[in-house]
Amino acid sequence: MGGANGERAEDFRAETQRRRDAGTGGRPLPWDGGGAVAALAAAVLLACPGKALASEADDPGIAVWFLGPAREISHSTSASRDTALLRMLLLPRPVLAGGGDFGVFALRAVGVSWRLGFFGMLELESDQETKAFVGTPQGDIRFWRGLWGYSVACSLDRLAERWLGEGSALEATLSFRHESEHYTGSNDGDEGTDHSDRPDIGNFWMPDLAVRWRVGPVSLIARYQHKIFMPDMFYTHGPGADLTVRWHLWDYIHPFLSIFGEYLFGAERADVGRVPDAYLVRGLLGIIVPSSYGDLQIFFSADVGHRKGLAVFTEEATLGAGIQAAFF
């Protein structure tokens, strides 16, 4: 695997090294504390129960509330690695993630819902396969990335139920997000690894359109998203799509299948030349255990494409397993 994109990765590394050797400076790993702040804020929001100022029972025309889901159509069953929830991948390598996608304000009127949301997550990933299980998967975790952002979502509640039936939804969302990639050195004092030749995701806008269609005991979610990166980033744009099928088989067991695909187009930069493209196709197959607090998901996974974070130049195909919990 590799081809032209692999050659671009080698050229990208070589150009970065050449500039460092020539004294023109390498790109330092970014640290703005955004990921840590996002995770802390998400934890605070999770501890606070939502409070509706007016319910539809009180006023069928208008409802306003604080703290709840950021979207009418939840992103929690997506196979995307950028889904903000509590996640532990057991195989093929340890990956631990924590975060949330919370609505901080919502307004429903004349059959349309508006939500203002906050998104934040941290993800830690090992560069080695799982060595053993001692309560959690054991591995040398050195890669990590932080994401945070905001969103505005508009759900056409009345129109969706009229067109598609009860329990269905149509929603458009616009998000602004920041992502940074990081590396933690050895606690044993070993010599560190220079990863400054890796591209950084940075800042981007992400509009998405989603539909949820409920047909009997089966709900189908389809979503199209498109990352539009700010100027001077290492990528230009990145289309992506989600498809999730959830079978409400029993009250406490819902089998599900989720497929996600994304392709990031590398930018042409004056300092390092053409940044290699990156893609990922990922699928989840498992069961959901629903509760009044949220969903517990147990799944097998299959990935084809590039890894995330500072390991983005690694292209692979893997099978894995994991568990995750979503509150919205």
Mean pLDDT: 85
CATH architecture: Beta Barrel
Q: Tell the overall outline.
A: globular
Q: How many extended strands?
A: 19
Number of helices: 3
Rounded to an integer in angstroms, the radius of gyration calculated over CA atoms is: 21 Å
CATH C-level: Mainly Beta
Unreliable spans are: 23-59
Measured distance between first and last alpha carbons: 38 Å
Can you summarize the main beta sheet?
12 strands, antiparallel, barrel
Oligomer: single chain
Order of helices and strands: HHEEEEEEEEEHEEEEEEEEEE
Range of strand content: over 45%
How many discrete domains?
A: 1
Find the CATH topology.
Answer: Outer membrane phospholipase (ompla), Chain C
**What is the helical fraction, as a range of percent?**
10-25%
| Category from helices, strands and their pairing | mainly beta
Structure description:
By secondary structure, the protein is mainly β. A hairpin with an 8-residue loop joins strand 18 (295-306) and strand 19 (315-326). The strands form 3 sheets. A 12-stranded antiparallel beta barrel has the order 4-5-6-9-10-11-12-13-14-17-18-19. The protein has a two-stranded antiparallel ribbon with strand order 7-8. It has a two-stranded antiparallel ribbon with strand order 15-16. Helix content is 12%, strand content 54%.
